[in-house]
Amino acid sequence: MRAAVLHEIGQDKLEVLDDVEAVGFGPGKVRLRIRATGLCHSDVSAMSGVLPQPAPFIPGHEGAGEVLDIGDGVTGLSAGDRVLVCWLPACGACPSCRRGQTQLCLAGFMNAGTPNFKRPGGDVFGFAGTGTFTEEVVVDAGCAVPIPDDVPFDIAALIGCGVTTGLGAAINTAQVRAGSSVAVIGCGGVGISTIQGARVQGAAQIVAVDPVASRREAALRFGATEAVSPDELADAKQRITGGEGFDYVFEVVGKSATARTAYESTRRGGTLCIVGAGAMDDNFQVNMFELFFDEKRILPSMYGGGDVLRSYERAIALWRAGRIDLESMITHRVQLAEINDALGQMRTGEALRTCIEL
């Protein structure tokens, strides 16, 4: 079968091959036929080494498709079911799951170290234990979440990661209050979803911050009340908040420099929400006096900061009701053979979300 493979960490292009086989099918597993998958910035971060991932590997974790086969012991799924891929399934038994923090379950991460593909030359890993830049993949049954018939595969794929992450940051983690002021730094697919989440929550001012003009223009269409470049943020803070700072600031880039800017843009007693996934050696610093004196809440948000299954249901409900726009987030559509063009569009900021159709 065909798949897009990264041979070594640090390479900036993928090779589309037709000699890849999905392996590992057995008890507790399902085999999926991928129909659509989104290109998320985390895929690029794994390719560059910012996020840890064994290589060679197949990127992709934001996918949807059909169940081809189920292993022994799998319940609630049948061949032919339409599903989205959950890259961080909850085991239901670990301390995090028992506390109700299923988004912190590590069971899914354990899968990342086990190859789920192979080629004649050896084993191939799937990013985050999945790997959706391929025609077929074998995953744990918990990674295959049934979707209603009225949800298209491309929309379901977005909900599988970017939409859930961004909406959840605003709704679950920060719990944005109606009438508040919000700034979102980084307006790709996750940032746009964060903006939509803040709008759903009733924020009065939502300032989108991004260096790319086309993304700033897009942010206005998705609910931002104003869109500025990074060097205009200080002026927006002064005009909108009287220099006090925003009630909520979301960092959706994953870099310490933008996190520091986000901290400084947050009012005393306000909330800084870290949504971007960054590198292990990139350290965010605050001094002990400002940490005490400013009383700003610093809240990381992992995969939307809540139960992902409930978050999927909520995203579908909001989409059905017309409260969020998911179709317009897909700005580019490509075939698997064009994956490197899609990577270029993401790196330049031209694309919000690219759907790879298989």
Please tell me about this protein's structure.
The protein contains twelve helices and 19 strands. With 358 residues, it is of the alpha/beta class. The strands form four sheets. Strands 4, 6, 7, 10, 11, 18 and 19 form a seven-stranded mixed β-sheet that branches. The relative contact order is 0.16. The mean pLDDT is 96.
Q: So how many helices?
A: 12
The helix-and-strand class reads: alpha/beta
Low-confidence stretches: none
Based on CA inertia axes, which overall geometry fits?
globular
Proportion of residues in β-strands: 25-35%
Could you give a quick summary of the protein structure above?
30% of the residues lie in helices and 26% in strands.
Q: Secondary structure elements and their pairing?
A:
Elements: E1 3-5, E2 15-17, E3 21-22, E4 29-38, H1 41-48, E5 57-58, E6 62-70, E7 82-85, H2 95-98, H3 107-111, E8 117-119, E9 122-126, E10 136-140, E11 144-146, H4 153-159, H5 162-173, E12 181-185, H6 189-201, E13 205-209, H7 213-221, E14 226-228, H8 233-241, E15 246-251, H9 256-265, E16 266-274, H10 288-294, E17 297-300, H11 308-320, E18 330-335, H12 339-348, E19 353-357
Parallel strand pairs: 5-9, 12-13, 12-15, 13-14, 15-16, 16-17, 18-19
Antiparallel strand pairs: 1-2, 3-8, 4-6, 4-10, 4-19, 6-7, 7-11, 8-9
